[in-house]
Amino acid sequence: MTSTAIPELVGIPSFPGVAGSVDPAVTSWHSVCRVQDLEPDWGEAALVEGRQVALFLLSSGAVYAVEQRDPVTGAHVMARGIVGSRAGQATIASPLHKQVYRLSDGACLDGAGSSLAAFPTRVVGDEIQVAA
Q1: Separation between Cα atoms, residue 81 and residue 94, nearest integer Å
Q2: d(Cα 56, Cα 73) in Å, to the nearest integer?
Q3: How far apart (Å, rounded) are the C-alpha atoms in residues 73 and 99?
Q4: Is the dihedral of CA 4, 77, 16, 20 positive or negative?
Q5: Inter-residue contact 61 to 35 (CB < 8 Å)
Q6: Is 3 in contact with 28 (CB distance < 8 Å)?
Q7: DSSP letter string, 88-112
Q8: Cα–Cα distance between 90 and 88 in angstroms, integer?
Q9: What is the mean pLDDT of each run of 10 residues along the chain (132 residues)?
């Protein structure tokens, strides 16, 4: 894996756990795998800066990264969740109790449950990178 410094992003606020924003603690992009290493609409787990992350490549080509830890049970299983959509937004359902989370920002869509941390992603060449 390689890392590069994150360039200054103008107009993108810093909100911890929100995909597309940069947490002030985020210092670099990390190459995690190649695009062709992921199967569309299935998750894979990766270790990024000591943190377990669930990666998803959707059939649309969008790439998402969320916390691998299920906030309800504490088990590291989100990469095995069910990819879907709700109101046109990409989601992941926990494989254990089926709580549904929005992949873009990790928000729990089933009531007032705990959210997942979401991480900014990008594709550079054929590599998927996650900010951490």
Answers
A1: 5
A2: 21
A3: 11
A4: positive
A5: no
A6: yes
A7: TEEEEE-TTT--EEETTT--B-SSS
A8: 7
A9: 37 37 67 97 96 97 97 96 97 96 96 91 96 93
Task: Supply the pTM of this predicted model.
Answer: 0.80
The answer to whether 125 touches 85, Cβ cutoff 8 Å, is no
* Residue 109 pLDDT: 96
Render the burial of 89-118: b for 16+ CB within 10 Å, e for the rest: ebbbbbeeeebbbbbbbbbbeeeebebbbb
62, two tokens: 């969008």
Cβ 50 vs Cβ 64: under 8 Å: no
User: In this predicted structure, what is the pLDDT of residue 23?
Assistant: 54
Hey, what domains does the chain have and what are their CATH numbers? 17-131 (2.102.10.10)
Residue 109 CB partners (closer than 8 Å, separation 6+)? 86, 91, 100, 101, 102
Give the three-class secondary structure for 61: coil
